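pasting for ref
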Amino acid sequence: QVQLVESGGGLAQPGGSLRLSCAASGFTFSDYAMSWARQAPGKGLEWVSGIYSDGSDAYYKDSVKGRFTISRDNAKKKVYLEMNSLRPEDTAVYYCKARIEGYDYWGRGTQVTVSS
């Protein structure tokens, strides 16, 4: 079965950095685009970034452009989100997502808290 497991969250100071990882299993990872989304306290889920199946292109929410970088390692079946210049408004639970045959699969998320 499809499994997505996020890791790497934690507490960071404003201006700091964190690197999130998502380990995938149960499907042919290299065949599918992957995404990151987040849900801040009291708010809805919002898309953050996506990357093509071969890593050839990536897309970002405007508010994270220039600060976040998505990447993937198809050999390791992992997708990453490098987050720099973190802001308090980046505080959220971050989720990894795969859309496979029209169905969205989600991990359980990893908490990112940006606070001094």
